[in-house]
Amino acid sequence: MSEYAPSIEKLIQCFERLPSIGHKTAARLAFHVLDWSEDQTDDFVNSIINAKKNLKCCGKCYNISDTDPCSICSNVNRDQSIICVVENVRDIVSMERTHEFRGLYHVLHGSISPMNGIGPEDIKIKELLNRLNTEKIKEVIIATNPRVEGEATAMYLSKLIKPLGIKVSRIAHGIPVGGDLEYTDEITLTKALEGRTQM
């Protein structure tokens, strides 16, 4: 039997569905929400409903946006000849924070992971190839995560894209700024050496 009233227990269970939220944190969030005024609660609930109702997938890059095409794809000031391929929408936000990349994006919505039953047909690879065959793209930058799945996806994409005569590059991986060599693992050090640049 639960120590909470059924309505509170249901609210806790809903918060537990969020990533990295355990039972104690979910309970804390639930009671925090219960302390809100009716206006605050309505605002919170309506923001979730509106986001679910109004957000859509950009038909070009598969970013999540209020408009189709999204604001990045429709921006004529961006370099239309370069596409940066990322695994998920959050990766675009990270890239945009640098204010360095001025091209377009393509969101795969995942990475190849045979262990989890995710193959090339389960992510937006076919859609990327369609773009490469219909748009004047000079370079594809692969910015998948430096995990086994991200590396496998990068290698797979590279093999598909190179025969099209399009330059394929991979973002460099290595030691983070402020990191110590002493605490850096061998794979990261290897990638840092491979991605070294001339000074």
What's the topology here?
Blueprint (H helix, E strand, L loop, with lengths): L5 H11 L6 H12 L3 H17 L1 E2 L6 E2 L16 E5 L2 H9 L6 E4 L17 H10 L4 E4 L5 H14 L5 E4 L15 H9 L5
Parallel strand pairs: 3-4, 3-5, 5-6
Antiparallel strand pairs: 1-2
What does this 3D model show about the protein?
By secondary structure, this protein is an alpha/beta fold. It has 2 domains: 41 residues, RecR Domain 1 (Helicase, Ruva Protein, domain 3), CATH 1.10.8; 109 residues, Dna Topoisomerase Vi A Subunit, Chain: A, domain 2 (3-Layer(aba) Sandwich), CATH 3.40.1360. 41% of the residues lie in helices and 11% in strands. The protein contains 7 helices and 6 strands. The strands form 2 sheets. Strands 4-3-5-6 form a 4-stranded parallel sheet. A two-stranded antiparallel sheet has the order 1-2. α6 links the parallel β5 and β6. α1 crosses α2. The protein is globular, with a radius of gyration of 21 Å. It starts with 5 loop residues before the first helix and ends in a 5-residue tail after the last helix.
Number of helices: 7
Number of distinct beta strands: 6
* Overall radius of gyration: 21 Å
Provide the domain count.
2
Low-pLDDT windows of residues: none
Main sheet: strand order: 4-3-5-6
Structure keywords:
Helicase, Ruva Protein, domain 3; Dna Topoisomerase Vi A Subunit, Chain: A, domain 2; 2 domains; four-stranded parallel sheet; alpha/beta; 199 residues
